[in-house]
Amino acid sequence: MLPLEDHDWGDRGFSLLDPSGALLSPLVPIAPRGDFVNAYVASAAPASTELSALRAG
């Protein structure tokens, strides 16, 4: 359905349709990019994310 992609807002995922017709969309948190970096507060960002480094560019 959808290929594996990294999304700027802070997740990596894909989607597929299982044989019963259910849409599955597994997602894993990753560091946000671009304009989305400033939308995160440090306590809500994924644990591996160092927001100050991301904001610094």
Describe this structure in words.
With 57 residues, the chain is mainly beta. The chain has one domain (2-56). It is built from 1 helix and 4 strands. The radius of gyration is 14 Å and the shape is elongated.
Order of helical and strand elements = EEEEH
- The class by helix and strand makeup works out as mainly beta
Q: Helical proportion?
A: 10-25%
Largest sheet: 4 strands, antiparallel
Instruction: Kindly report the oligomeric state of this protein.
Output: single chain
What is the beta-strand fraction? Answer: 25-35%
What value does the Rg take, in angstroms? 14 Å
Total count of helical runs of at least 4 residues: 1
Contiguous uncertain segments of 5+ residues: none
Ends apart, CA distance between termini: 33 Å
The total strand number stands at: 4
Number of domains: 1
Shape: elongated
- Mean pLDDT over the full residue set: 82
List the helices and strands and how they pair.
Elements: E1 2-7, E2 11-17, E3 23-24, E4 27-29, H1 51-56
Antiparallel strand pairs: 1-2, 2-3, 2-4
Question: What distinguishing features does this structure have?
Answer:
57 residues, mainly beta, 11% helix, 1 helix, 32% strand, elongated
